[in-house]
Design brief:
By secondary structure, the chain is an alpha+beta fold. It is 41% helix and 14% strand.
Length: 248
């Protein structure tokens, strides 16, 4: 029986999760479609740009990713402490980059609320936004919905682009986390899309090695400060308190 997403995500047990989204009917997200002779390679960059943009707004870090031809993998870290320390203005600024701002919140920000009840109602909305900024389901929704709309517009069609809900797996310890990250980064090599990790574009390993996901001819669609991939801690980086553990 299908479980609710809420029952599959428990931040008290682990902040790390492996997420997978697959296109409906194995349609092409990216790559070369040998049947239609169409190239969808440019869509890989859509996913990478949108993913990094959302990471700059959400209290979620990207540990690893791989953009394949008809699906993609993400290993995410939810930074609950960082999210709780955001003030109300910061929460508003982040969330309203994605969605429109209610009039009540605008009035609260400009100090035009006329009663304590209005203040409480505005703050309740903001706290609801705060919970969403640390919610993997909302992160994936903002990613998948954007890509689906853009792909359907390019294909001049309507309907579902993704195969149902994304799949999510909790990574409960260091062994599971590092094994999953290696699995994700090696996906293109395993699928014979690349000969080596160093040449495997649109993966986190390629980005860590070369500093970017791919050298692009045109600038990013978004104007934002890019959050780097989640770093490693342990051994020579023991002084760092936040990062992917690698003491194995």
């Amino acid at each position: 029986m299908t479980q609710s997403r809420q029952s599959q995500v428990s931040l008290s047990d682990t902040p790390y999760y492996h997420c997978i989204s697959r296109c409906v009917r194995r349609a092409y997200l990216c790559g070369e479609d040998k049947y239609t002779q169409k190239s969808f390679e440019h869509r890989r960059q859509w996913v990478v740009e949108r993913m990094h943009y959302l990471a700059s707004l959400f209290s979620i870090d990207i540990c690893a990713y791989a953009i394949m031809s008809n699906h993609y993998h993400l290993v995410l870290h939810v930074d609950e402490a960082f999210n709780n320390n955001l003030n109300h203005e910061e929460v508003c600024e982040r969330w309203c980059q994605l969605y429109s701002k209610p009039v009540l919140v605008e009035r609260w920000q400009s100090g035009q609320t006329i009663s304590e009840a209005e203040n409480k109602a505005a703050l309740a909305i903001i706290e609801h936004w705060r919970s969403r900024l640390a919610d993997i389901s909302w992160f994936m929704r903002c990613l998948n919905e954007f890509i689906a709309r853009k792909a359907n517009k390019e294909d001049e069609c309507f309907g579902r682009f993704w195969e149902g809900r994304f799949k999510s797996q909790a990574l409960l310890d260091e062994d599971a986390l590092l094994t999953c990250m290696a699995y994700v980064d090696l996906n293109p090599v395993r699928a014979k899309m690349s000969d080596s990790v160093e040449t495997s574009e649109y993966t986190s390993a390629y980005e860590r090695i070369h500093g970017v996901a791919q050298q692009k001819e045109k600038p990013l669609e978004y104007a934002f400060t890019k959050k780097p991939l989640f770093g490693f801690v342990g051994d020579e980086n023991k002084q760092s308190t936040e990062g992917i553990p690698f003491s194995l």
